[in-house]
Amino acid sequence: MSFETLGLRADILRAIADQGYSTPTPIQLQAIPAVLKGGDILAGAQTGTGKTAGFTLPLLEKLSAAPATQTGGRRPVRALILTPTRELAAQVFESVRDYGKYLPLRSTVVFGGVSINPQMMKLRGGVDILVATPGRLLDLVNQNAVSLRQVEVLVLDEADRMLDMGFIHDIKKVLALLPKQRQNLLFSATFSDEIKALADKLLDQPTLIEVARRNTASERVTQRVHPVDRNRKRELLSHLINQGDWQQVLIFTRTKHGANKLTEQLQDDGISAAAIHGNKSQGARTKALEDFKRGAIRALVATDIAARGIDIDQLPHVVNYELPNVPEDYVHRIGRTGRADSEGIAVSLVCIDEIKFLRDIEKLIKRDIEKEVIAGYEPDPNVKPEPIVLGRRMTIGAGAGKNGGGRSAAKKPALGQKPKNGNGKTQQKDGAPRKPHTGAKPQGNGNRANAGKPQQARRPQAAN
After folding, report:
1. Which domain holds residue 281?
2. Rounded Cα gap, residues 28 and 325, in angstroms
3. Can you spell out the DSSP letters for 82-146?
4. Sign of CA dihedral 198, 203, 204, 206
5. Of the given ranges (38-47, 84-93, 123-132, 397-406), which has the lowest mean pLDDT?
6. 106 and 156 share a domain?
7. pLDDT tens digits for range 198-241
8. Are 96 and 28 contained in the same domain?
9. Domain-located, residue 431
10. Are residues 163 and 42 in the same domain?
């Protein structure tokens, strides 16, 4: 089936052809007609399946088919797309702009980390489609720079990540500013109880679209675990990059500090690398991503939140330098490769401290991941597990004690053995709770290491 059969106008089809696409993906085949038909939608699709075009294409068609009535000479915002991070907002806006370039519609994107004044000027001229992160959007509303009273379609993109980052309160504030009569589209890479609860409150008899088994990793991604001692991970990583002649590899760490440290070590090993995380300025993050895309650097080291929205065609390798303590994040991470029709390889360097994380991941994706010990990097069987430090006040794993929920080192299984008495609990990302504590300010890219540190109460700023 082709895009011509989905009810899109010629100007949109022309823009699609300009991008080099001719055949819609499964999520697009289902989502485009459903959005055009009207009614709310709850869509579950893995990252890399083409879901962004799944809602931007029909959105452009709907707005073009029924021009809005201007108020006071200014175009009202008719479609609002909320995303959790700056990078994802920029990516979605690029999609709107590219597919709508032959249409008389205006669009813009707003997020934090950059000056608010140019964004206010753009909004004063009126826009039809607004892509935004929650915090900056509310800042603009509070300054009377934008009105949301005429929004016809609301899109929540990667809603699961927005909830993980603690944006539920901001989302509720935005919802209160919208007209009750509107179409709601909720897209999520994974479904959780929190997502179901949000859908129950937000959506009215939604059409359910799901193109992949829930919480599964892409079938196009070859997954592999390399057991290794914790103090030899960097050495093994450099070995893999050099021996395999990897020219483009996205590497995940748990913390911003860990990303910086690993980047410096890779550079010392002669591997061009850059880090991307919430403590970096927006300009530095954009430059690092652009350098990575064009091949100026071989390795991009990222934290989970900062990597959201990274969309690179045919990215061949993803490495979990440290396994995430939230298993769903593993699915998001490896979804950066194996996108669309491309194949990809996801490698995880796993030390004895991370056995519980690995078991949780395998349970989530309902499969065992292939284990391969690299010659010369065999784990020392005498090494004992140590607690994993996620922040100033949070450790988990062996010896973590009462606050970390861990057990003594002597009871931890060796890598490759099944744990006997796992406590079954993992903390949220970097030890932070799913919702920010009152008075606590999430830090940087969402690796909220200082979530327990008293701060003046304010909404999450991580992605804005």
Report:
1. 221-411
2. 32
3. E-SSHHHHHHHHHHHHHHTTTSS--EEEE-SSS-SHHHHHHHHTB-SEEEE-HHHHHHHHHTTS-
4. negative
5. 397-406
6. yes
7. 899 899 999 999 875 555 555 678 999 999 999 999 999 999 99
8. yes
9. no
10. yes
